[in-house]
Amino acid sequence: MPTAPGPATDGTATEPQNVLGDALQPCSQDPVTGFYRSGACETGPQDLGAHVVCAQMTEDFLRFTKRQGNDLSSPRPRMGFPGLDPGDQWCLCAARWQEALDLEDLRSHAVEAE
Questions:
Q1: Which domains can be identified in the chain, with CATH numbers?
Q2: Secondary structure letter of residue 9 according to DSSP
């Protein structure tokens, strides 16, 4: 498992911050989330997927991300992953969240075929 970012290069400890510069709030401890499994959506150099968006899972999103090749609903005991259910909160990759957002935006403008 990757380790969370450590001290800054000047030796001072750095506390994770949100985009507003405030202290980063927890996302979920049950199931424990975050790239570093800290419960918060903190990121660092090892997090190539930028797992920075805390989102509450819905059935639609879990189906969507499974179709995209990232099955978040199936347990993977060997990896210590319980599988997610609707209502769970989880740190998502920014790009996957954007894909889902774009899909919802498109759906809001869709018209039924006659």
A1: 23-109 (3.30.56.110)
A2: T
